[in-house]
Amino acid sequence: MRYQIEQLASRWFGLAALCLALAGMYLPVLMVFVYSFNASRIGTVWTGFSWGGYRDLFEQTELWRALMASCSIAAAAGSLSVMLGTLAALGLRHWRPRLRVMAQSVLALPLVTPDVITAVALALFFSALRLPQGWGTVIAAHCVFGISYAFVVMLSAVEDLDETLLAAALDCGATPWQAYRRVILPILSPSIVVAWLFVFALSFDDFLITFMTKGPGADTLPIKIYSQMRFGIQPQTNALFVILFLATLGGALLASRLARRSEPVV
């Protein structure tokens, strides 16, 4: 009897902890959904239900421009980071163990470096070189941490790579470029996609490094939203949040469904 009571109490405690965690994670998202239908111009003051936020969203050219800037910067930073991170992971396979460990530590160092240090260092670096700040400097700054994340993701995939596959392709008459393009890259493609999406999400959400390295007129979506905080987030911004959240959720569900279809049937 005592054992059953303890089991029941453990289940209720686990359920309560789960509900508390889910509430902390998704109640703010639910509030964004609710206030996206706010009739007030100030998004934090509820005055009534209205579809005006979604209707007026397409008239917010500056908001869409900031969204396109964030997507463009994140796509460029993700592509460059994955390319350089993959090449670094492939190149380190042939280094001596001690040098390889040292190089891996240096490449992974930005993962544990506070963003404020990275942001100030990059701002001083670009200023010392007298580089005009804009999208180019923001993409370069995002690659600083993006390469580290891409390298860590690709390192595990490269370590599991069978070297005999490359040797077999070369023995069959393929050039080194053909062997990498037709044999190695298809094997690494799932990890490459994961690394690209990871860096894209980090770059899209970044605020501090972007704020310190951007130039005038290069506002991304997080910076544009920050500029609205003085007057309160508008319902149009909340509506854009809802659209982005639903698009992200749909992409995650689609990826999960495709992953289940690709699993072998036993």
Protein model, in words:
With 266 residues, the protein is mainly alpha-helical. The chain contains 11 helices and no strands. Helix 1 packs across helix 11. The C terminus is likely disordered.
Helix and strand arrangement:
Elements: H1 2-35, H2 52-57, H3 61-91, H4 97-108, H5 115-128, H6 135-159, H7 163-171, H8 176-205, H9 208-213, H10 221-228, H11 235-262
Helix pairs in contact: 1-11, 3-6, 3-8, 3-10, 6-8, 7-8
Beta-strand percentage? under 5%
Gyration radius, in Å: 24 Å
Task: Classify the helix fraction into a percent range.
Answer: over 70%
**What's the assembly state of these chains?**
single chain
What would the keywords be for this entry?
266 residues; mainly alpha; globular; 0% strand
Structure summary:
The protein is mainly alpha-helical. The chain contains 11 helices and no strands. 25% of the residues are buried.
